[in-house]
């Protein structure tokens, strides 16, 4: 995890941009959604990152222990 100082988003969050969008709207940048939800539910950046890490661990565990026999390699040809 990098520090906040090294994080340079492509877009800058501006709450006024969200007036026409609901959280989850496909045109609302994922980072904006995270900022809105963090403010609404009083969630810290550290809590979000801890949840993301735990979610990734659970995903990896599921892939390795439950879905391994369902994952097969494929070959993609580019023309």
What's the helix and strand layout?
Elements: H1 30-41, H2 45-65
Explain how this protein is built.
This protein has 79 residues and is mainly alpha-helical. It has one domain (9-69). It is built from two helices and no strands. The longest helix has 21 residues, at 45-65. The chain is flat and about 45 Å long. The termini are far apart. The model has no long low-confidence stretch (mean pLDDT 76).
How much of the polypeptide forms β-strand, as a percent range?
under 5%
**On the 0-100 scale, what is the average pLDDT?**
76
| Sequence of secondary-structure elements | HH
Structural domain tally: 1
Tally of contiguous helical segments: 2
For the termini, the CA-CA separation is: 38 Å
The major β-sheet equals: none
Question: What can be said about this structure in brief?
Answer:
Helices cover 42% and strands 0% of the residues. By secondary structure, it is mostly helical.
Keywords:
2 helices; 79 residues; 42% helix
